[in-house]
Amino acid sequence: MTQGIRISISGARSAAVGREHGVTPSELKALEPVVAQAHRALRAERSQKRYGFYDLHKDKAILGEVQRAAKGFSKARPQNLVVLGIGGSALGTTALVTALKPPYYNLLSEEERGGRPRVFVMDNVDPETFHQMMRICPPKKTIYNVISKSGGTAETVAQLLIVVDQLEKAVGASALKEHLVVTTGALERGAKPNPLQALVKKRGLVSFDVPPNVGGRFSVFSSVGLFPAAVLGMDLKALFAGCASMDKQCSRASLQDNPAYLRAAVEFLGSRDKGKSISVMLPYADALRDVADWYRQIWAESLGKRCNLDGTNTAWYAGQTPVKALGVTDQHSQLQLYLEGPNDKIITVLGVAAFRKRVPIPKAGPSVKGPAYLHGSTLNKLMAAERKATVDSLKENDRPVMAVNFPQVNEFTVAELLYMLEVETAMAGRLFDVDAFGQPAVEQIKVLTRRNMGAKG
Amino acid sequence: MTQGIRISISGARSAAVGREHGVTPSELKALEPVVAQAHRALRAERSQKRYGFYDLHKDKAILGEVQRAAKGFSKARPQNLVVLGIGGSALGTTALVTALKPPYYNLLSEEERGGRPRVFVMDNVDPETFHQMMRICPPKKTIYNVISKSGGTAETVAQLLIVVDQLEKAVGASALKEHLVVTTGALERGAKPNPLQALVKKRGLVSFDVPPNVGGRFSVFSSVGLFPAAVLGMDLKALFAGCASMDKQCSRASLQDNPAYLRAAVEFLGSRDKGKSISVMLPYADALRDVADWYRQIWAESLGKRCNLDGTNTAWYAGQTPVKALGVTDQHSQLQLYLEGPNDKIITVLGVAAFRKRVPIPKAGPSVKGPAYLHGSTLNKLMAAERKATVDSLKENDRPVMAVNFPQVNEFTVAELLYMLEVETAMAGRLFDVDAFGQPAVEQIKVLTRRNMGAKG
């Protein structure tokens, strides 16, 4: 059996950081019935298929589908995969790419990339960036995966219009299907097709459905994340196995035995009773930096809500601000604040036991001599020593800290973490008493943007 | 005269977002004598040369020095510039590169780069990343700029030991000087040389001094930032002109006329009186995303302090947590929280009037049709419309927002912003009553790390 991640909340307990900042056994005990009730509610909603994210990894058919499609596109040896998508349509893929492909992946030769294309996730409409991407990725050599559940995301549709125009000029409208893959909601019977659905029909494009009960920020294990992952040669079965392993652990009803619930409880109690308005995710591994960015969305957008769950309190203003950081780098940027500033954070440190490379630090040579403890050591040991120093200092200064330890970073363990954070978010929604699955304010902005663009009505 | 940035705090005033969340005229008025006194103290310290950052742009000699050195190294047509440095030795260069070089710069051909090298800022000791960088950048084709004011930063020295070992093998010890440039503190008379100083002497390397009165996070306009900038062909005179322009504006004694002081006052009053524990920097331009990361360091490390300025209160725990965000991308990630979550943030929106590219969105074509308001528009207009929607929504929801508007992003305007934020931080240090120029907790971590590495003593 594959070795999985290990989750610990011990550094956030009162035994480690005191009663003022850490959770006490009795506080956790008091929350048990609340969690048990929330668990029952979430289980009921899961069995009613209200939230699809829980069960995405059981859909083995989708793996065959995305892999067949990826294989089909690979025949023409595309040099670039460009994802057009924003928010939940982009962050999952970016997290997986940074974690699972080598550093500086796009700078590697085709051979070093194992014949796989470079990857560009276009999650903004910055004209300078988009213009440059179009120059760097000639349409003839590129496949585009446009992703929007609603099919109406202004940023993504704008990108698509530009790409289709260029593709038509480069390869002709009839060859669009060799370069463009659409991921969007399924066309409902009798409904007017959205722009992406209409395009699929008109040009016979390969397309994937986003299940109707899966929201953007919970969609990484749907076709949204899986098709790009397949094109890039990730081990999709291992991703699903990681989900399944964590599904098992996160299905336990008991707060004390469920890592997702324990973490949600710490964040909630900290936020409600101990002034912990900020949740920091601090990976000690470059590969996990965009997992922290993915977390930033799911935590902010799910919990940041004006109304409580049943809508009776419209001045609830719930939420905790997620912050992404990076070790050791941020020891020279954020740690001063984390140790000596306001004690308003809970910090999750992600550690990696075995990096995929080992870099020795040479013994003292003829030109330069450092401190003795560096010579003959490794960057791996230095990274671990710094992580331990940070965690110990945080606790020493009564700053609550949780740990997630990776035996190594791979498809299985990354999927475990993402799945756990999804369940944690669902439970946190219940504890914070908000609808974790909507985003009403974002809809507001869309209306205003249209108006600012001069749209009628 | 070059057009500069425009700063506005109007969206953070009570007139825009109400008295509970915005600053009132009388609150600003009441702060005037405090600011006036702090201004006198800072001016005195400036004239005593206690803090060097104020006057770096007056050192015209350094421009000639770094440019001559850069020209010398360019003769061998190096393919890569690798900066070895962490925290203040890295963040300034990264901010300048992202703002002033084209997007995807390292993916461009040598010709497209104007004959300049690719650039890698190594601000971590992640073994996977460092290993890959060493593969991608063959030592023979690379120049390294190792930067550490103390010369003893563990991460940077570890990197240096690896690089020197590889260079010795590739080009020989006697040719180190053709590949390695050192930026460190000047050797004081009678002191034992730090490892970098010793290396300079032993191998006759080109080196630059970090002035003793300039700390890492205030060093971007010293040789720390200027040598990489020169190698990459940035307009150093325009950088200095931007500093000078902002120096003039930020030298005004009156709170109401000084943009840096006004901004510091809003952050301080918000933090002290209105629960604004978080300061978000939200650029609507990919080019400015790492300026936000640079801000994250200067704001966190300068203000996050356990003791007050005169050391009489050792449980002061001051600070405000800086958060970097990115528009429009984070509209689909963070904005829900910013609009509907706890009203605990002051958000600075950076806007750009003229991007360096214009990307038209095509008229409706034969394959795909979007909403009418997109067709025939531009990504530039869409970006502007989204920014306005966000700012208006924030104000509508009583969330204080400040603005910095760039006519365009260039050396002059970026330097203006960085210089203003430096002065703002210095003033904020006075208002928050902390020593903005130390980082005691970071020193603690260094000791612990050495111990974890098995060092004696």
Topology:
The structure is a homodimer.
Chain A: E1 6-8, H1 14-17, H2 25-47, H3 60-74, E2 80-84, H4 91-100, E3 118-122, H5 127-136, E4 142-147, H6 154-171, E5 180-185, H7 195-203, E6 206-210, H8 223-231, H9 236-249, H10 259-273, E7 278-283, H11 289-303, E8 321-324, H12 335-340, E9 345-352, H13 379-396, E10 401-406, H14 411-432, H15 440-452
Parallel strand pairs in A: 2-3, 2-4, 4-5, 5-6, 7-8, 7-9, 9-10
Antiparallel strand pairs in A: 1-10
Helix pairs in contact in A: 2-10, 2-14, 3-8, 4-8, 4-11, 9-14, 10-14, 11-14
Radius of gyration of chain A: 23 Å
Q: Which H/E pattern describes the elements of chain A?
A: EHHHEHEHEHEHEHHHEHEHEHEHH
Q: Indicate the mean pLDDT of chain A.
A: 97
Q: What ranges of chain A have pLDDT less than 50 throughout 5 or more consecutive residues? A: none
What is the top-level CATH class of the largest domain in chain A? Answer: Alpha Beta
The CATH topology of the largest domain in chain A is what? Rossmann fold
